[in-house]
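Why should sequence recovery work at all? Because a backbone constrains its sequence more than one might expect. Tight turns favour small or flexible residues, buried strands favour hydrophobic ones, and helices have their own preferences. The token representation captures these environments compactly. In the example below, the structure is given first.
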């Protein structure tokens, strides 16, 4: 890991890191954290200014000041920098992405001020889908907020990319890594689902399909928003969920 000198922003320190083969922000309070940790996994929109690791940067800085949270915000690589094309390579690249996120958790865990029992995850869109696999395979994630994920990788990849081969063969090959196949492994750690009522990509029935597959404890919320989910109420409610799920008020 390499790092530039931190930038101070409203009581938080923001480090710009090289982490493995990607970039990440590390955000902590001035003077160090007080226990909680978070990993933020951003959404995919190559035309949006927040479709990158900076999506949750302001939120992470605010949580550093208000609750002493130390956050890591890695830059996604797949499908941000390499397009889906066929099942074999796509399975491998999803595995590579989740491995990067394990390393980001290693970074959080290495901070002496971070309590390993109070680490949460916030993921949006593809970040949420990768986040399901991360939470299923890494017990350091104590609670998860999943924003606008779809149940299957094929829900996105098949309509929007020229995938090689038979579509049903592709769906079968990807199935073991589909969020709907893995979400049950996250329980009994709590999960909060956040969806937009005006999402043109996700029908309400599709949203509830993934929620129903999750084990307890879980909760689901819908907002007057589109897929970008830029609504203050969603941010307030995921903060409240994490405070309750991970005892963020304790020092």
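From this structural description, the recovered sequence reads:
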């Amino acid at each position: 890991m390499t790092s530039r000198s931190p930038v101070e922003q409203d009581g938080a320190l923001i480090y710009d890191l090289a982490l493995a083969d990607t970039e990440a922000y590390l955000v902590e309070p001035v003077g160090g954290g007080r226990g909680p940790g978070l990993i933020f996994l951003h959404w995919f929109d190559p035309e949006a200014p927040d479709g990158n690791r900076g999506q949750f940067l302001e939120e992470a800085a605010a949580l550093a000041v208000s609750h002493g949270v130390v956050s890591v915000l890695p830059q996604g690589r797949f499908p941000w920098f390499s397009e889906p094309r066929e099942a074999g390579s796509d399975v491998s690249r999803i595995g590579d992405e989740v491995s990067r996120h394990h390393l980001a958790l290693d970074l959080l865990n290495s901070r002496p001020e971070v309590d390993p029992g109070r680490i949460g995850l916030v993921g949006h869109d593809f970040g949420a889908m990768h986040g399901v696999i991360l939470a299923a395979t890494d017990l350091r994630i104590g609670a998860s907020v999943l924003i606008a994920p779809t149940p299957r990788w094929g829900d996105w990849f098949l309509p929007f990319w020229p995938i090689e081969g038979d579509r049903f063969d592709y769906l079968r090959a990807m199935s073991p890594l589909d969020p709907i196949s893995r979400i049950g492994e996250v329980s009994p750690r709590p999960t909060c689902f956040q969806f937009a009522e005006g999402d043109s990509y996700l029908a309400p029935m599709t949203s509830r399909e993934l929620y129903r597959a999750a084990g307890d404890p879980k909760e689901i919320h819908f907002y007057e928003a589109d897929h970008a989910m830029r609504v203050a109420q969603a941010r307030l409610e995921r903060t409240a969920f994490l405070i309750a799920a991970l005892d963020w008020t304790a020092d």
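A few observations help interpret the result. The helical segments are 57-67, 87-110, 126-137, 154-160, 167-174, 179-182, 204-213, 232-246.
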